[in-house]
Specification:
93 residues; HU Protein, Chain A; 2 domains; 3-stranded antiparallel beta sheet; two-stranded antiparallel sheet; elongated; IHF_beta
């Protein structure tokens, strides 16, 4: 599902809301999750999962084309851990 499909589904299930308002709500939620992660905070949605940021240390990598050693800088990557409810539902429990 992509963002526009999510917005359309929520708008269809809530006919009392305008689609532009639903779009603003969805965008605000995503922005807040992104902003919290940019600050290094953890975002937990009970029953769904938790978003966090993990740090990857600098390391020596290899260019796959030439085999030459390349310095890879330290970076921060997003990480998602599913909640128990979501995991159980995916596994048919």
């Amino acid at each position: 599902m992509i963002r526009s499909e999510l917005i359309q589904k929520i708008a269809d299930e809530n006919p009392h809301l305008y689609q532009r308002d639903v779009e603003r709500i969805v965008n605000t939620i995503f922005e807040e999750i992104t902003n919290a992660m940019a600050r290094g905070d953890r975002v937990e949605l009970r029953g769904f999962g938790a978003f966090s940021v993990k740090k990857r240390d600098a390391r020596l990598g290899r260019n796959p084309r030439t085999g030459e050693a390349v310095q890879v800088d330290e970076k921060h990557v997003p990480f998602f851990k599913t909640g128990k409810l979501l995991r159980d539902r995916l596994n048919g429990k």
